[in-house]
Amino acid sequence: QVQLVESGGGLVQPGGSLRLSCETSGLIFSNYVMSWYRQAPGKERELVAIISSAGDSVNYADAVKGRFTISRDNAKESVYLTMNRLKSEDTAVYYCNAKWGIVYWGQGTQVTVSA
Fold first, then answer.
1. Residue 95 CB coordination number (10 Å)
2. Please, which residues have CB within 8 angstroms of residue 102's CB and are 6 or more apart in sequence?
3. How is residue 1 annotated by DSSP?
4. pLDDT tens digits, 55-95
5. What is the side-by-side order of every strand in the sheet holding 68-73?
């Protein structure tokens, strides 16, 4: 059974930082392209960051470039999203996504940026 479990969300002030983690199980992690998506209230889910299976290629949404960093540890079968200089518009539920032909999603973790 494949599981993706996100953690690390919470309430943070503007300008602050958070590190999200996504631990996986039940899949051959090193084969999968991993991504983080987010969905704000009333908006569509959007791609935030993506990392290749080997971790040697990354891409980011324009809105987060220079502030967010995606990384992975294939030995720990986990992917991370380090978020710096957070803004109120970063408030959303953040989802982990694994893709290798088939696609798997985590349950999401809430990030709220507010003073």
1. 21
2. none
3. -
4. 999 999 999 999 999 999 999 999 999 999 999 999 999 99
5. 3-7, 18-25, 78-83, 68-73
